[in-house]
Amino acid sequence: MKIILLEKIEKLGQLGDVVNVKNGYARNFLLPKAKALRATDDNLKYFESKSVEIRKKNDKEMASAAKLSESINNKTFIVIRQAGENGQLFGSVTTRDIANMLSDDGVPEITRNQVSLVEPIKALGIVDVRIDLHPEVSVIIKLNIARTSEEADMQEKGPLNNLDKENTEIDSVVDVFEEGVEINIDDSQDVDLNTEHTPDVDADITEDEANKKEE
């Protein structure tokens, strides 16, 4: 199906581009979500007449998203969930859960479709999640998924503490090598490296020669 894009679509095109897509993709997603129009003669004329207005609206929404991104990019959100001793959640954290959490935290108008997850989160830990605030503005937030707020605090500080400990141990080893080890050699053990070593003649006597001497 040939369509007119009403916004930038990743791997498809920019606002105003006319592209061909599979019918199912257009009917089930792009058209219902108002992300595109069928590229009919009437719609092409309509887009041309409204293109300036459409682009201004897009620019305004993009500027708003960019401003919002400044306040939440790389921000950590704590998510409390029940989990077993092995860290597996009793359930999962889904795109809908994340969208609701952001809304509860005061982030406006975030839907599950704007949350990018390969699959639901099913274990404790700190996870990076991409949020598409606008087709041209994305941010990364961190979800600290824990059973309690105390555990969340430990998860956030733990890796840094471990890293500091490792760096301290490495620095200690480096200091030892830099200081060196003083080796004292007794005068009686001095070796003249310029003197050629002469092998002990007796030590080189063969077994046959030894037998002859005894005779």
TrEMBL record:
Record-linked Pfam families: Ribosomal_L9_C, Ribosomal_L9_N
GO biological process, one term: translation
Lineage of the species this protein comes from: Bacteria, Pseudomonadati, Pseudomonadota, Alphaproteobacteria, PS1 clade
NCBIfam families: L9
Protein name, entry field: Large ribosomal subunit protein bL9
Gene: rplI
Keywords: Ribonucleoprotein, Ribosomal protein, RNA-binding, rRNA-binding
UniProt xrefs under InterPro entries: Ribosomal_bL9, Ribosomal_bL9/RNase_H1_N, Ribosomal_bL9_bac/chp, Ribosomal_bL9_C, Ribosomal_bL9_C_sf, Ribosomal_bL9_N, Ribosomal_bL9_N_sf
Role noted for this protein: Binds to the 23S rRNA.
GO molecular function, one term: structural constituent of ribosome
Annotated region described as Disordered, given as residue ranges: 185-215
Keyword Ribosomal protein part of the UniProt annotation: yes
Residues making up the signal peptide according to the UniProt record: none
GO CC field: ribonucleoprotein complex; ribosome
Family named by the database record: Belongs to the bacterial ribosomal protein bL9 family.
PANTHER family linked: 50S RIBOSOMAL PROTEIN L9
Start and end residues of each Ribosomal protein L9 domain: 13-40
